[in-house]
Design brief:
This protein is α/β, with parallel strands linked by helices and 455 residues long. It contains 20 helices and 13 strands. Strand 2 and strand 3 form a beta hairpin. Strands 5, 6, 7, 8, 9, 10, 11, 12 and 13 form a 9-stranded mixed sheet that branches. The chain has a 4-stranded antiparallel sheet with strand order 2-3-1-4, sandwiched between helices. Helix content is 47%, strand content 15%. It binds S-adenosylmethionine (SAM). S-adenosylmethionine (SAM) binds next to helix 15 and strand 6.
């Protein structure tokens, strides 16, 4: 009997992630998967993300049941074992015999027939193991090693979060990272129109008519949370009247404010660009992106008349003019988005933070050089690590008197006063003068933002 399409796709994607350093979310949205039914696509997503989220916990279980060290197994055998173990441990709706059978078939199809008996024996051994409430165990973990083990995170990452954010916040981060994240959207609206509320309500009604159920945004008034239904296929999405975007990411774009000459210097895939360009319809929005294929993606997604895309390295910006608003949403470790990108936690090494920091400082310095007098720049990351956030701002501004870090408290209060922000506890979003959202503590991904002004 053939392997089910969802498991075959999940197996192939897990192997590619291991071998090519690819990203799960990108592979799961690639055109090749378009032929899958939405049910199979959903199952493939659940299997890939579930295995990656719980990888170290699954490996511990497998290692205890295996006669061979996991490091010595072929990639195909390990991937099939992880897929089987995940279904046995977390998918109660899949009968154990089906989970085991499909993993055995996967290794056979991958020409590892000799491993079929081994895979069958290991998975049978773990099939009967009781499943304790793992989220309760995460909530009760009292030290970094136990928390890392229960929450399937690398111990070094958990230890540094406890040091920086405290034990309780770290438990919440871990719980959030191990949970399927919700989908948020931004409803674009014409801000020059006096009746923005009714514009947003019209889009609400349009989406409801297509079977999409929404609840209000938790941070922002123009945001919505998708409760059920497929927003990607709606006309509003295809026409760019809504964007699928985490609420903290929307908030970062709002902080850029209004201007005539805007630079978005690390722009792909372009979700913040879309918000900037629609919020500033009369402004020219120049975007740069290092990788030409990502610049093309940005171009295709953002067909707005005021957006101009240039494939360029933001460390050496090719512009002679200056900009009164700049967004530097730099490449980062992504540790604030582990629920969406769980593979990151297994790849990232503490020493990578140093290289990332050097690149981030170079981009920020180069962007600051393009900032007009009186202009403002937002530096942002989706990282929880100090090295990529406060330390970058401090390093880039060291020894200069022409720039100053502005307190974001005033900006957030203004967004609240004018009704754009609905989150009440502004102080909880601040770390000194900076924006700091923490997954699990706030209802969004973990973003950092600094506002820098040129005197
Ligand atoms: C965090 S992502 C930006 C996300 C984007 N602002 C959005 O909201 O959709 C960082 C982007 O910067 C690009 N990048 C990396 N190094 C760069 C560089 N030196 N110059 C310009 N872009 C760069 C990456 O390819 C990636 O697309």
């Amino acid at each position: 009997m053939a392997v089910s399409p969802a498991r075959a796709v999940a197996f192939e994607i897990l192997l590619r992630i291991e071998r090519e350093e690819s990203y799960a979310a990108e592979l799961l949205h690639s055109a090749r998967l378009a032929k899958l039914s939405s049910r199979d696509h959903g199952l493939a997503t659940e299997l890939v993300m579930g295995v990656l989220r719980w990888q170290s916990l699954l490996d511990r279980q497998l290692a205890a049941a295996s006669s061979q060290k996991l490091e010595r197994l072929d990639g195909e055998v390990l991937a099939a074992l992880r897929l089987g173990a995940y279904q046995l441990r977390f998918l109660s709706r899949v009968p154990a015999r089906a989970a085991i059978f499909e993993s055995v078939e996967l290794v056979k199809a991958a020409r590892k027939r000799s491993a079929a008996t081994f895979v069958n024996a290991v998975l049978r051994k773990i099939a009967g193991a009781g499943a304790e409430d793992i989220f309760a165990k995460i909530g009760e973990s009292h030290d970094s090693i136990t928390l890392a083990q229960n929450a399937a995170h690398p111990p070094w990452l958990v230890a540094r979060w406890i040091e920086h954010y405290g034990l309780e916040a770290t438990r919440q981060i871990c719980i959030q990272d191990q949970t399927v994240p919700g989908t948020a959207i931004h409803i674009h609206h014409d801000e020059s129109d006096v009746d923005q509320v009714s514009q947003i309500s019209q889009t609400d009604a349009e989406l409801a008519a297509t079977g999409v159920r929404l609840s209000p945004g938790r941070l922002l008034s123009a945001a919505r949370r998708v409760l059920s239904g497929d927003v990607t296929g709606t006309r509003a999405n295809q026409e760019g009247r809504i964007s699928i975007q985490d609420e903290a990411s929307q908030l970062v774009a709002l902080l850029v404010g209004r201007g005539e000459n805007i630079l978005d210097c690390c722009a792909a895939p372009g979700s913040k660009t879309a918000l900037l360009a629609r919020r500033n319809p009369r402004a020219k929005v120049l975007t740069t992106e290092l990788h030409p294929h990502r610049a093309r993606l940005l171009q295709n997604l953002n067909r707005l008349p005021n957006v101009h895309v240039v494939a360029a390295d933001a460390r050496h910006l090719p512009f002679s003019s200056s900009f009164n608003r700049i967004l530097a949403d730099v490449p980062c470790s992504g540790t604030g988005t582990l629920a969406r990108n769980p593979e990151i936690k297994w790849r990232l090494k503490a020493e990578d933070l140093h290289d990332l920091q050097s690149r981030q400082v170079a981009i920020l310095k180069s962007a600051l050089a393009q900032l007009a007098i009186g202009g403002r720049l937002v530096y942002s990351t989706c990282s929880l690590e100090h090295e990529e956030n406060e330390a970058v701002v401090e390093a880039a501004l060291e020894g200069t008197a022409e720039f100053k870090v502005a307190d974001l408290k005033g900006e957030l209060e203004q967004l609240r006063q004018c009704g754009e922000m609905c989150w009440e506890d502004i102080a909880s979003l601040l770390a000194g003068p900076y924006l700091r959202t923490i997954p699990g503590v706030h209802p969004c991904d973990g973003f950092f933002a600094a506002l820098i002004e040129r005197r």
